Amino acid sequence: MSDLFEKIVSLSKRRGFIFQSSEIYGGLSATYDYGPLGVELKRNVTQRWWNSMVYRHDNVSGLDAAILMHPTTWKASGHVDAFNDPMIDDKTSKMRYRADQLIEGHIDRLRRKGKDDEAERVYSDLVDALNADDAAKALYDIIMTEEIRSPDSGMFDWTEVRQFNLMFDTHIGPITNADNKIYLRPETAQGIFVNFHNVRETGRHQVPFGIAQIGKAFRNEIVARQFIFRMREFEQMEMQYFVKPGSQMEAFEAWREERMQWHIDNGVRPSKLRWHEHEKLAHYADAAQDIQYEFPIGWQEVEGIHSRTDFDLGAHQEHSGKKMEYFDQLANEKYIPYVVETSAGLDRTILTLLCEAYREEEVGGDSRTVLKFHPKLAPVTVGILPLVKKDGMPEQAHKMEDMLKEHFNTFYDEKGAIGRRYRRMDEIGTPYCITIDGESVEEGTVTVRDRDSMQQERLPMENVPGYLIDQINNWETS
User: What DSSP string runs through 124-162?
Assistant: First the structure.
């Protein structure tokens, strides 16, 4: 783990963004709890996603499907038979790895050394292996041929590659047997597909239209580390867009462009984002690309855009015996719609924003740690800071707080030197601080401090709400 990544993990706990789950009992691997600031950041991200997906599109409706679904759902979707990861163990360190990711890491190292031809050869072999009938053996052969060593121990002592199904199972009722076995959903998409007609009819939609959902999913990740990047319990922000067969690539490109812009509009620098095309398409897809962010741990997926064809609706029609066709009145024809999916990991988006916002700066010979969140995403928008706890300043500060609470999430802080309070606000990403001093009591003016520039401006109290709204709407990343 890089030094920068460790600093972000440490800050997340220290300031109340993210805690290890069940920490008093030693913690539970790959599960995390969102603290007071983390839950506010998460709420802001989900609301911003919902606004962009549902409220800004007349033909997209929301859904909140149950986590537990009929077990045949997962047979129809292919998860029971094909939801596997290829794993390999280092016999020395006992660490377990994704075989394909080991090979991808080897390819990246070759490219960094300028061995582009060799990297392309191994990449071609990887693509062939992922599409082979026996992918596990093909991946193992590459690791052996290339003599890829363990990242942790440096040893070349591997087990064979094996496939692991990632679904959690449980049982309904008092007796545990095969008849009442069900699964915790490994993705939220299937809840959308089985409700296709329910949402279409009640929402009075015609194709093309979309169904959006934010919800929990569960995967029994064999390799689960790197903080909240890969967890066993996580949240997805997904939208399934139903289109007429033959028009899916036009929709795919349109949503590709819109989803990349959403991340940029969140304050993520375009230079830290890129597209990654899948080497192997899933069994249901005819196109798939990922939005990747350059984390301190390297380029990793944040969101996927997939053209899923008519596989899902067709499979549920076959297994349920219920028609999933759509009657197009204008064309006077029936068809099973194709689907374009946008699927963003909420936790990975949170981690992206933490990594993107984190800065260490020199200020007047001192250092400060600051999270430069987009003001619309920051957990706390405005800090209210009376200069001292006397002379009417706390009372005036509370008046300012009451005025701003109608518009923003505020935090009142009167403890400690004003400089230290500024640093605390910087470290949790608060974009604006209002300082109330003696002049505030006498003349009704306050000082507004900008987190990024650290410049201050004096304003009448009644002008502050409008001023902050203008500043937030015109904010630009730096």
Answer: HHHHHHHTSTTHHHHHHHHHHHHTPPPTTT----B---E
Q: What is the largest CA-CA distance in the chain?
A: 80
And the tokens for 373?
Answer: 């969140």
What is the full DSSP assignment across 34-69?
A: E-HHHHHHHHHHHHHHHIIIIIT-TTEEE----SB-
- Taking only the tens of pLDDT, the chain with its 478 residues reads 578 999 999 999 999 999 999 999 999 888 999 999 999 999 999 999 999 999 999 999 999 999 999 999 999 998 887 777 888 999 999 888 889 889 988 998 999 899 999 999 998 999 888 878 788 899 999 999 999 999 889 999 999 998 877 888 888 887 777 778 899 999 999 999 999 999 999 999 999 999 999 999 999 876 666 899 989 999 999 999 999 999 999 999 999 999 999 999 999 999 999 999 987 787 788 999 999 999 998 899 999 999 999 999 999 999 999 999 999 998 999 999 999 999 999 999 999 999 999 999 988 788 899 999 999 999 999 999 999 999 999 999 999 999 999 899 999 999 999 999 999 999 999 999 999 999 999 999 999 999 999 999 999 999 999 999 999 999 876 5
At 431, list the tokens: 């974009």
- Rounded Cα distance between 12 and 428, Å, is 9
Provide the strand spans (E) within 264-378.
Answer: 273-277, 287-295, 298-309, 326-328, 333-335, 338-345, 358-363, 366-371
How far apart are the C-alpha atoms of 95 and 150, rounded to whole Å? 9
Please tell me the distance from the alpha carbon of residue 143 to that of residue 126, in angstroms, as a whole number.
10
Residue 86: cis peptide before it, omega within 30 degrees of 0: no
SS3 472: helix
> Three-state DSSP class for 454?
coil
Q: Enumerate helices (H) and strands (E) in the chain, giving the number of each.
A: 16, 23
Q: Where are the alpha helices (DSSP H) in 358-455?
A: 393-405, 418-427, 438-443
Residues with Cβ within 8 Å of 123's Cβ and at least 6 positions away in sequence, in order, are 107, 279
Tell me the HSE value of 423 on the side-chain side, using a 13 A CA sphere: 14
| Chain centroid offset of residue 164 CA | 24
Q: In what helix (H) or strand (E) does residue 317 lie, and over which residues does it extend?
A: helix 311-320
CB atoms within 10 A of CB 215: 19
The sign of the CA dihedral 276, 277, 278, 282 is: positive
Helices 393-405 and 464-473, packing angle to 10 deg: 50
Structure letter (DSSP) for residue 282: -
Q: Rounded to 5 degrees, what are φ and ψ at 160?
A: -75, 160
